[in-house]
Amino acid sequence: MDWREKAEILDADGIRRALVRIAHEILERGRRGEALALVGIRTRGVPLARRLAGYIEAIEGAPCPVGELDITLYRDDLSRIGPAPVVHQSQVPFPVGEKRVVLVDDVLYTGRTARAAMDAVMDLGRPARIQLAVLVDRGHRELPIRADFVGKNVPTSQQEIISVRLQETDGEERVVILERAGGKG
User: Fold this and answer.
1) Structural domains in the chain?
2) H-type helices in 125-185, by residue range?
3) Is the pTM of this model over 0.90?
4) pLDDT (tens digit per residue) in 81-123
5) Are 42 and 117 spatial neighbours (Cβ–Cβ below 8 Å)?
6) Which residues pair with 179 in a beta bridge?
7) Strands of 174-180's sheet in order across
8) Which of 32, 89, 90, 176 has the fewest CB atoms within 10 Å around its CB?
9) Residue 91 carries which DSSP code?
10) For the purposes of burial, counting CB atoms within 10 Å of the CB of 112, is it exposed (0-12), middle (13-18) or buried (19 or more)?
């Protein structure tokens, strides 16, 4: 299926501003003495989590641990992905028990990825609480899940795609809405 760019919703500076604001919100909504850790959901949630950790360290003067989570085996649509899905190893180099874990992803859509990520984190231990930070919330939830921290809310149609492009993964820095070529969305 061919897709064409409909609109750019965030440029590089917009992404940076959204992440700085999210970093401040994460710190403001913390509890006194609560241990914080960020866990990025592969693929684009990982560089976003690393950036947030950098902003949090710049604000607080102390490092924030970052982990990487692969949720492939936790997906409820695994049979639709293909006969041999590529599974990467999760790398969470700290105990999650009794920590405030903030899951980080690029786009919140149906809520299924966030649900799978929560299951994966719970298999690692029992955090004090789990929160969700996303760069873009596009709506259309299928599960009762909402993000605690959102960079930008973007109402979309089911025929549109939000494409987050990050320097670390795509060689460019922007968020765009794509629509089917020849369609009106």
Assistant:
1) 3-78+86-180 (3.40.50.2020)
2) 167-170
3) yes
4) 555 555 568 899 999 999 999 999 999 999 999 999 999 999 9
5) no
6) 4, 160
7) 3-10, 174-180, 160-165
8) 32
9) B
10) middle
